[in-house]
Amino acid sequence: MKVVMDLATTLKSQAVPTDIREVGINPDYWYPLDWSTQLKPGQVKPAAVWQQSLALYRDESGVAHVLEDRCPHRGVELHRGKVQGNYLACAYHGWTFDGTDGHCEGIPYLSADQKLPCASVRSYPVRERYGLIWVFPGDPSLADQCPLPHVAEYDSDEWLMVPITAEFAAHFSICNENAMDVFHGFLHEELQGWFDPTLLELKATDSSVFAKYNVSYKGHLAKFLGLCERADEVTTLPISIHYRYPHYASSLEGVSSVYLMRLPVDLDKSRSFALFFFKLNLPKWLIRLLHPLLSAVVQRFMLRKFLDQDIEMMESEQRKYSSDPDRRFVEINPAIIALQRVIVRQYEQFVQQSKQSSDIPSLSRQASVSRSPASLSAASLPETETETMV
């Protein structure tokens, strides 16, 4: 039974718990590593998810695999090796490993009748969907129980899809707060961004936050996106943001949607794989015909400009935190407080389950920070619930 909490939409003032900038992830979810088109058959490349170094490769039959980026022989990084059929061979001595189960399948300098050593490397569940390669860095027995995010518009020809990748020199909590915080439209005013936002509705569970805002638009960009008929006309529309740990989905009343697939990399490094969908006032056949051109134009001349402004602010926030971790700041958006509670609860849930099973993955290194993230409890964040619903 999932309990949904109705939350108050106003909050006078609340000190931001700075330790949120050091909390770890719950690895028992699917995380994106790369776009499928960026990994060719026979190619191997390095990747990482929350302090776990990975070797990502596509075998010669086209199947993607993820292994721990460390050979069990000498500890050499496996991403420096090469693909041999369905296996990945270490660059140092040529030991080969099966991407499915991580077992050593061959050593070139041993005779055919010589027994292989009991050596293996950790392998990870992998899926490909929405043009992305996904990895499950947690308990592999839970992978089949955990669904990938649902992207309803992906297979529809009614939408123009624009993929975009971003890298942030910031903790994933900072990136997540940026996506939930509609009040920062002031930052984008020179790009004809939104204005006069109002938080209308806020709900939360232990793994999600739903926020609904009213926002106003004006200008040529708003007209191009079909938000208004004239550039000098002000249009107010509701925007819904749904954070389902650890990813986002937001919708602007059937006009546009965005899915942000988050990849926490380290304490001060994150990546995001975004899918933007737009309903343009053009015939479907024309959208299909011009899709590559339209996608490139929208990404370069619209989305990238907004994103660059956001990245500048997020990285500035991270730099100031890193220079003075004990400095306290003030937050008045209850959606941000609700988001922080979910992030902390999910990490606590993983830690508690790991302790109960006495099987914390050796590669997770979830508590390898100087200031223990476990010291931040969800209970230390303010409760603003006004009603409980089932």
- Domain count: the total is 2
What gyration radius follows from the Cα positions, in whole Å? 23 Å
The helix content is 10-25%
Biggest β-sheet strands, sense, barrel: 9 strands, antiparallel
Give me the CATH architecture of the largest domain, please: Alpha-Beta Complex
CATH superfamily of the largest domain: Naphthalene 1,2-dioxygenase Alpha Subunit, Chain A, domain 1
Arithmetic mean of pLDDT: 85
Structural class per helix/strand content? alpha+beta
Protein architecture, described:
The structure is a single chain. This protein has 390 residues and is of the alpha+beta class. The protein folds into two domains: 1-30 and 140-390, Alpha-Beta Complex (Naphthalene 1,2-dioxygenase Alpha Subunit, Chain A, domain 1); 41-135, Rieske [2Fe-2S] iron-sulphur domain (Rieske Iron-sulfur Protein), CATH 2.102.10. 20% of the residues lie in helices and 32% in strands. The strands form five sheets. The protein has a nine-stranded antiparallel β-sheet. Strand 15 and strand 16 form a beta hairpin. Helix 1 (172-180) runs antiparallel to helix 4 (334-357). The radius of gyration is 23 Å and the shape is globular.
